[in-house]
Amino acid sequence: MSDLKSAVHEAPLQFVDPRRFKANSQVSVDDPHLRRSFRSAMDFLQAKRGAHFGEAATFEPLRRLGEAIRKYSLSRLPDLLEQLEARLVERGVQVHWARDAAEANAIFLAIAQAHQAKAMIKGKSMVSEEIELNHRMAEDGVACLESDMGEYIVQLAGERPSHIIMPAIHKTKQQIGQLFAEHIADTGYTEDVDALIAIGRKVLRAEFRDTPIGVSGVNFMVAETGSLVLVENEGNGRMCTTVPGVHIAITGIEKVVERFEHVLPLYSLLTRSATGQAITTYLNVITGPRRAGELDGPKEVHLVLLDNGRSQAYRDATLRATLQCIRCGACMNHCPVYARIGGLAYGTTYPGPIGSIISPHLMGLDPTQDLPTASSLCGACTEVCPVGIPITDLLTTLRHAAKHEALPGHAPLVGQGSAADWREAWAWKAWAWLNTHPTLYRIAMRLGRHVRGVTPAWQGGWTAHRTPMRLAARGLRDRLAAVDKG
What we know:
Helix 10 packs across helix 11 and helix 17 (352-363) crosses helix 20. The chain has helices at residues 3-10, 21-29, 32-52, 56-75, 77-90, 101-114, 126-130, 133-139, 149-157, 173-183, 193-210, 236-242, 263-275, 310-315, 330-333, 336-341, 352-363, 365-368, 380-384, 391-403, 422-435, 438-450, 476-485, and strands spanning 93-98, 119-122, 143-146, 213-216, 220-222, 227-232, 246-252, 256-257, 282-286, 300-306. Strand 5 and strand 6 (227-232) form a beta hairpin. A six-stranded parallel sheet has the order 1-10-7-4-2-3, sandwiched between helices. A four-stranded mixed sheet has the order 8-5-6-9. Helix content is 50%, strand content 10%.
């Protein structure tokens, strides 16, 4: 194992606790550099997407098609997964099912130990971030080196990705230059972007050749043909899936579609929504290990299908729409909250609006109860979602679930009711009772106006950023009565 790999995994991982989301957000908002950087990056990405989807007539028909494909695929999810497994096995792919992150990591470790491998090289995979693969493998002496440039940068920094498409979007070229100078041997400090890219590529190229196991994510799985489709721009994904002798792909169970023709509209929506490209540089279609007479490709291919809370979302007819996501990041790019605080403040693998609706399933509502409230409900995320996920509706559903127990006959979400507050509950009951008794309501309003001068200056979270609420000197009813008399 190279010194570089050792250095990467000795770096402390700066994970952020989602339970501290409010405090994390305040730190981010108080960082003017971070706010400027994200605002600039979001404006750029919005403009890139707008160049392709500037007119509703261009976007809406394709979105309706993408939404229909994802809904159809999810409606047949169990059958499609069984069909996919059968086709992949026919083609020599070894399929593994993982209930949670622990099972997925155990599968990876078992494969590494079977090949006596001490290192893996990874293409970009948010699901591997979800299970914290790099750090769990490091605990057992297996180094995982990121080959996507953005992922490589945040790995050197010991951080999570701050965006699902552009992991190091929060880093400046000066910060990257300093990281490379500190962690890569015989590398001087430079701020030249082309030079930094060249340095990273030089380091990683040797690792593709020498590392026995390559790891990748999967963008789409085709049940009919037993194909794994991987979308990328840098070529590292193709290297990870063809050069090492063993290829392990990992993805969520929701990524399956029935036929290859279903991939094409989703691919078109993904590239345009994510980076404003009509097509990415590489579209990899993997159908099994190297066959007799072929010159390249791995000798062994594994697919790890991860649940990790997805079946919880699937069982609910409303929440199932969460699984339509194709991980384009458009909702983040247009979210006013994400643009101001960035991705690290969320403390989850998937930040932004999509993270706020999927993380409660992956991690439970207890640690993520504040995330569904991290939205102004302006609807920008729903408006740009290329597969029609009603994100704002799902946010309000999860807000309610965080504060209330499940209805009789309904299976509760993990952590449901964890944000319940008896004081708030009693306050709403008192409000409802008062508003259903008109005479008492009018008496209470008159008394309130008499004591309006002693309204407390502190009113909980409301006055953190707003002036205190105070009853008007005259109510609407009195004002209307005065108008009638006049």
